[in-house]
Design a protein that fits this description.
Blueprint lengths: L1 H6 L1 H4 L2 H36 L13 H24 L12 H8 L2 H10 L7 H6 L3 H12 L6 H24 L8 H17 L1 H19 L2 H14 L5 H29 L1 H26 L7 H20 L1 H11 L6 H29 L3 H20 L8 H7 L5 H16 L14 H6 L1 H10 L1
Helix pairs in contact: 3-17, 4-5, 4-13, 4-16, 8-9, 9-20, 10-11, 11-16, 11-17, 11-18, 12-13, 12-17, 13-15, 14-15, 14-16, 14-18, 15-16
Length: about 475
């Protein structure tokens, strides 16, 4: 926006400063995600959301549900782009443009944060957190209210006992691995956290999973998607779209096509599989980068006389956004959420998330400098990494669609790990009475309960 450029002229025209202004947000997010697990355990999921720390998706979330989360993200991106386009008209679009044009856009980010911050106070504590803190009765009441069923309902009791079984399993796993650190003290808990993370690096099959999760997120960011999202107006201006209105309009189209392209992932990702989606998306993105690089290399000094070439380049930026929207946007998160055994899943996903945010920060920081100094080489660079990401998935990442935990262990070279864990889980379930709900002689739940909670029962059967 012209008023923003006028106000921040020295900053936005220095590539290094511009990179820091954008990427400092991602650095903050990276620092935040490092504390998420600790604060969520200590303060509860409820109060860590108030503090602005987002909790990762539940471990059992897979496929379409994770893609649905990505759809919500792309919807937010689309809305934000069009807010920028709309506020650009406040006070005109020329030299006399009001500073409200960009101040309003920035201030509007407060609205969802305030709604979330106030609204979360009315939400109950997480049943899982309540169980982990010895507040079983409260957890049962929360589940009862959430399911709109009495506490002694079979479905509520099953869900409560599954949460309880998982908590006992995690405690017993910790006691088996680190018997000398069970006194509950601050030092012991700190050491437990460190040793749990170190165990991921010491055991080769788990290290393989760490590499798959971390490198998947590395390649997701180095496809250059956030270089496009963060600097789209600048990129479209460099491609010959003069004027803030045109560049913001083209940026808005990026948001629309990425959102629409994510919808097929929600519907079909569990049918097609992870590898075909990721590989095809990577190669399409690589091709788009190379085409844009060629056009920029040929016409970057003469866009005025090659308008059609400029629009072709813009179209391939939009195709790139579509390719990311159906593939690496949702599918990379699906992959890193489902490759872990139960005992280390939370920590494994947190490492992958940390890789995502750190590489996100680096991409955001270096992109303006790259665009300023190597020009079309920036697109060649990201195109090469997109291609390498496709090869990485093709050669080193197994297909994980529909695999059980035991099958996941086999393909990652740790056969027997999940089987042993499953035996302990079954023993715990028997000890706390959960197995009684599988007794064929037990009375069935009321038909209306079953009808209203088909999806919940399906989730139970999938876990079993």
């Amino acid at each position: 926006m012209s008023s923003f450029d006028s106000r921040m002229h020295s900053a936005v025209n220095d590539p290094g400063t511009k990179g820091w202004l954008v990427s400092i947000l991602e650095l903050g997010a990276w620092l935040g995600v490092l504390f998420t697990g600790y604060l969520a355990d200590k303060l509860s999921r409820k109060y860590t959301i108030v503090l602005g720390i987002a909790e990762l998706a539940p471990p059992e979330v897979r496929g379409s549900l994770v893609a649905l989360q990505q759809l919500a993200i792309t919807f937010g991106i689309m809305v934000s782009f069009w807010i920028d386009f709309g506020t650009n008209y406040i006070g005109g679009t020329g030299a006399g443009q009001s500073e409200a044009s960009w101040r309003v856009a920035l201030a509007l980010q407060l609205v969802p944060a305030i709604i979330l911050g106030v609204g979360i106070l009315a939400m109950p504590f997480s049943p899982r957190w309540l169980v982990n803190n010895g507040r079983d009765d409260e957890a049962l009441q929360v589940l009862s209210r959430a399911r709109r069923l009495p506490p002694d309902s079979d479905l509520v009791q099953i869900e409560f006992l599954e949460i309880k079984a998982q908590y006992i399993f995690e405690k017993e796993t910790s006691a088996i691995k680190f018997p000398d650190l069970q006194d509950g003290g601050w030092k012991s808990n700190f050491k437990l956290g460190v040793y749990d993370y170190m165990s991921l690096l010491r055991y080769r099959p788990l290290l393989y999973r760490v590499a798959v999760g971390s490198l998947t997120m590395f390649f997701q960011q180095w496809t250059g998607v956030n270089a496009i999202l963060y600097y789209a107006p600048s990129i479209f201006t460099d491609l010959g779209l003069t004027g803030s209105t045109n560049s913001l309009l083209a940026t808005g189209v990026v948001g629309i096509v990425m959102f629409l392209a994510t919808i097929p992932a929600v519907i079909w990702v569990d049918k097609v599989g992870r590898k075909p989606v990721l590989i095809s998306g990577a190669f399409i993105m690589a091709g788009c980068h190379i085409i844009v690089a060629i056009l920029t290399g040929l016409f970057h000094n003469s866009w005025d006389s090659h308008v059609a070439a400029g629009w072709v380049a813009c179209v391939f930026v939009w195709i790139f956004a579509m390719a990311f929207g159906y593939s690496w946007g949702p599918c990379s998160w699906i992959l890193v959420a489902e490759i872990w055994p139960l005992s280390v899943r939370g920590k494994g996903v947190s490492i992958a998330a940390s890789s995502n945010w750190m590489n996100n920060f680096i991409v955001g920081q270096v992109t303006p400098t790259m665009l300023a100094h190597i020009g079309f080489g920036t697109f060649v660079f990201f195109g090469a990494f997109s291609f390498l990401g496709g090869l990485f998935i093709w050669w080193f990442v197994p297909e994980t669609k529909g695999l059980t935990l035991e099958e996941m262990d086999e393909i990652f070279g740790s056969a027997g790990m999940a089987a042993g864990e499953q035996e302990r889980i079954l023993a715990i379930e028997k000890r706390i009475g959960l197995d009684a709900y599988n007794d064929p002689d037990r009375a069935s739940p009321h038909p209306s309960d079953v009808h209203k909670h088909d999806s919940m029962e399906k989730a139970y059967s999938e876990k079993a």
